[in-house]
Amino acid sequence: MLNKNIQDLRTFQKRTLILGMGKAFFSFVLISKLYYLQILNKSKFGKLSDTNRVKIRILYPERGVIYDSTGNKIAENRIDYQITILKEDKNKIKENIKKLSNFLSFSKEEKVFIEKNLKKNSLDDFIIVKKNLSWEELEIFEYYSYLFPYLSINKQKVRNYDNGLAFSHAIGYVGYSTKKKDSKLQELKIGKTGFEQKYNSLLQGKEGLQKIESHASGKIVRLLEAKKSKSGKNLDTYISKKLQEYCFKQLQGKSGSVVVMNVNSGGIVSLVSSPSFDINEFSYGIREDRWNLLINDPMKPLLNKSISGLYSPGSTFKLIVALLALNEIGFNPNQKFFCNGHLFLADHKFHCWKRKGHGLMDLSSAIEESCDCYFYNLANSIEIDKLAEISNIFSIGKKTGIDLPNELGGLMPNKKWKSEKKGDIWHLGETYNAVIGQGFTLSTPLQIATMISRIAAGKKIKPSILRKTQTFEKLNIPLEHLNFVRKSMYNVVNDYKGTAFSSKLKNNKYQMAGKTGTSQVRRISLQERESGVLENQELPYNLRDHSIFAGYAPFDNPRLAISVILEHHGSGSKFAAPFAKKVIDFALKKNIS
Amino acid sequence: MKELIFKFKNLHWTLISLVFFISFVGIVMIYSASKAEGLNPTYSHISKLILGIFIMFSVAMMNINLFQKYAYILYFVGLFFLIYATFYGFVGKGARRWINIFGVNVQPSEIMKIVLILAIAKFFDEKKIQTFKEHLFIIFPILLIVLPFLIILKQPDLGTGLIILSLGFVIFFIVGVNIKFFILCFIIFLISSPILWNTLHQYQKQRLLTFFDPYKDPLGTGYHIIQSEIAIGSGGFFGKGWLKGTQSHLDYLPEKKTDFIFSMLGEEFGFMGTISIIGLFILVCLVGYIISNNPEKDFFSKVVGISIITNFFLSAALNMAMVMGLTPVVGIPLPLVSFGGSSLVMTFLGFGLILSSDLSHKINKTKY
C-alpha cells in the first residue's frame, strides 16, 4: 500500500513537472510574441495606431483677390459653412444624412454630390455632407448639433464675385479641377475660364492641412497640429469696375461686345460680351437645366464675343487700306475719284453703300463719308499680300496676345492662303471686297480696338488685363501718314458730313475720333438689288448686319480706344457709334482711363 | 478567537501578497479603461474585489476536508445553476449564461470550473484505479466533465467550455491516468472533428477562420485582433503612459475593460508592463506549485491545488494569447485583472482553497 502510494506520488510529481514545463513553454511563446509586437515591430504598430486616430482635414487655400484699377474688388472670397463627416463608415454617413434631413433639406444634386465624394480617393479624411449653408440652416444645425456628434462644421473660403454677370467673360469662373494631379484634393477649385484660368497658378495658393485626433466612433477629439494654407496672390487689373458695369448695363438685351482699352498702356479698361451668364452660379456648381439653357441659347452667352467672336471688320478696315496707300504705294491723298453709287469690274457691279453716290471724293472725305467706290478705285493698285502684311502690323489677322485664354486670331487673306485653302488664285474682285472690310476678312472686337490703339498711339500696343509695366516699340509708319488717318477719323465724328457726326461728344473739352462700319452677314443677290435692297428691319434677325464703331478719345491726347459691335443691329453710324459715344462720354466724365 | 488569529497568522502571505498585487494592477487598468464612464466601474470592481477577498479568507479558514466531503453536492448545485442559466438565464455578449441571485449577476460557468475540480479530485482521491475492471470507472469522471462542457457549449460559450475540457484533461493527466487514454481521445477528436465543426455556431466558425487570417476582413470580424495587436505593438518598450493609450482611450480597442484589458496594459505600460504582469502570474503559479506539491499533503489537496493553479494559468495565458492573435478570440477574461465579478470572486475562492489546504496541512503538522 505504501509502495503504491509512493509510486502514485512519483507519477504525480513527474506529471506535474511535465505540466509545469508545458506552462513554461506557453509562457515563453507569449513572451516571444510580445517581444515581436512591442520591440521588433514597435514603429510599424506605432504608425498603424497613428493612422487609426489621426485624421487629415485639408485646408483649401484662399484664392487671390482680383482688383480693378482703382482698388475695387472684382473677385473675392466668402466663407462657406459646410457640414462634414469622417469618411470611414458608410453606414454611419447614410444614417446621419437621413437623420439630418429631418432638419435640413437635401436636393437631388446634393445627394449625388455626397455619393460621388464617397467614391473619390481624396487625401481628405472628411467629406462634405452639405455646403453653402445659409445662416438659417447654420442656426438650425447648431441648435440640434447635440444630436449629431459625428458631424462637424467646416469653414472654407470660396470664390465670390461682387457682380457675377458683368465680369463673366473678362474674369471667368472657377470650378473643380479635372486634372489627375489634383484628384486627391476633391474640393480644390481652379480657374476654368478667363483671367481666373490664365493666372490660376498665381491666384490658387497652396493647400494646408490639419491633423485631427478622432475617436473610433468618428467623433473629433482635438486638433493635433495644423499647417496653414497659403493664400493665392492678389492681382491688380486695368479693368474699371465702374465702366465695365456701365457697359454691361448698356449692352443689356443686346448681343454684342464692347472693348475699351487704354491706348498708352494697352490696359483693358472694359471688356464686355453680351448676353452674359452668372459666374457665381458657375463657381458654386451650376445646375444641369441651367447649363442646358445656356448652351442652347442662340445668342451664345457662353462665347466671349470680344476675343472669340469673328466679324468682318467692315469699313473700319478702310483705315488700314488708307495707311497702306499712303505708306507703300505713295498714293496722293488728294487724288479724286467720282462716286456715282457703283462701278464695274469687268461685268461685275460693285455697289457703294450710298446708292445715289458720294460725288467727287478725295481719300480723307472717302474715309469721313465711308465711300466704297473710292476704295474700289484704290484697290486696282493694291497688292493683297501687301495689305495682309500691314494688317498684321495692326493685329488684323493676328492674335493680339491678350492675357486671356481662347483668343482667336481671325483671318486676313492673302494669295498663299487663297491657293492653299480655296485651291484658287486671287482675283481682283476679292481685293475689292477686302478693301471695304468684307469678304474673307474676319476679326475680333479686341483686334479692332487694338488696331485703333495702335493708330492712336503710333506704337505696337499690346492689350493686357493684368496691370503690369510694358514698353511698346514704335510703328514703322511715318507720323504724317498716321496723322492723316487720325484727322480723317476726327472728321468722321466731328465734321457734319461724317458718318458718325450725330455721335459727336457734347462736351467741347474732348473730341472723339473714329470710324463706323457695317459687317455684312449675307450676300445681297443681284435679283434683290434690282428689286431694291431690303432695309435691315425688314430682314429676319439673324440676317441683319452687325453694327460696328471703332474710335478713340480724346483726340488731342488719346487715352481710350473703343470698339463696339452690336450684332444684327444694322449700320454702324446709327447704332454702334451713339453707343460708343455714351460709353466714352461716361468714361471721360468719370475720369476713367 | 485565539484559533482564528493563529490561523490568520499562518496563512500563506506570499501568495496573498502576489494576488493582491495583481488585483491592484487590475484596479489601475480598470480605472484607465473606464475613465470615460466615470468612477462607477472602478468602485464596482473594488467592491467585488472586497467580496472576493472576504470569500478567499473565509474559505482559507475552513478545513479542506469539508470541501472534499461535500464536493459532489457542490458539483450538483453548480450543475443545477448552470442548467438553469443555460435555459432560463439572460443573455450577455451573445451567450445565455447569466442568472440573477439577490440582485447580483452571476455566471454559473465560472462556479462550475471550481466545483468540477473538487468533484474530480474527490473521485480520484477515493477511487484508485488499479485493475482493468476498475478502468471502467473512468466513465464517471468523464461524465462529470462532458456534462457541463456540453451545457456550456449550448449557451454558447466556447471559451469557458474549452477551459473546462482542458481542465478535465489536466486533472486526468496529473492523477496518473494511463497515457493510452489521451492517445485514444486524440484519435477520437481527429475522427469527429468534421462533425464537431458542423455543430459550431456560424459566429464561432467565423472567429476560428478569422484567427487564421485577421486581415481578410479588417473592419469585420478581424477588427478586434488587429486593433489589439496595434495597441500592444504601439506601446513599445516603455508604453504610452498610464491613461495615455490612444488605441484604448479613443475606443479603437474593443472590450478594453474585460477581455482586452491586457492589450491596454501593453499599450500604456509597454513591454516592461506586459513582462512584469506575466512574471507575476508565473510567480503565483510557482508558489501554488510549491504549496500543492508538498509530498506530505493528501492527494485531494494536491490535485485541487494543481488544478486551480492550472485553471488560473490557462485563463491568463489563453487570454493573453487571444489578444495577441495567437489563438482565436473566444472570450476568456484575464483573471484578477479583467472587469467581471463572477470570474473575480471564483478566482479568489480558488486561492482560498489553496490557502485552506496549506493551512489545514500546517495545523495537522502542529497537532502531531
Helix content of chain A: 25-40%
Sheet with most strands of chain A: 5 strands, mixed
How many E strands of chain A?
Answer: 19
Low-confidence stretches of chain B: none
Overall tally of structural domains of chain B: 1
**What does the largest sheet of chain B look like?**
3 strands, antiparallel
Looking across the biggest beta sheet of chain B, what order are the strands in?
1-2-3
The level 1 CATH classification of the largest domain in chain A is Alpha Beta
Task: Report strand % of chain B.
Answer: under 5%
Number of strands of chain B: 3
CATH architecture of the largest domain in chain A: 3-Layer(aba) Sandwich
In angstroms, what separates the terminal alpha carbons of chain A? 126 Å
Mean pLDDT over the full residue set of chain A? 90
Number of helical stretches of at least 4 residues of chain B: 16
- Gross morphology of chain A is elongated
Mean pLDDT over all positions of chain B: 88
Structural class of chain B: mainly alpha
Poorly predicted runs of 5 or more residues of chain A: none
Structure description:
Helices cover 39% and strands 19% of the residues of chain A. Chain A is α+β, with helices and mostly antiparallel strands. In chain A, strand 8 and strand 9 (220-227) form a beta hairpin. In chain A, helix 9 packs antiparallel against helix 22, helix 13 (318-327) runs antiparallel to helix 20 and helix 15 (372-379) packs antiparallel against helix 18. The longest helix of chain A is centred in the N-terminal third of the chain and has 39 residues, at 2-40. Chain B has one domain (2-367). Chain B has 16 helices and 3 strands. A 3-stranded antiparallel β-sheet of chain B has the order 1-2-3. With 368 residues, chain B is mostly helical. Chains A and B meet through helix 1 and helix 2 of A and helix 9, helix 12, helix 14 and helix 15 of B.
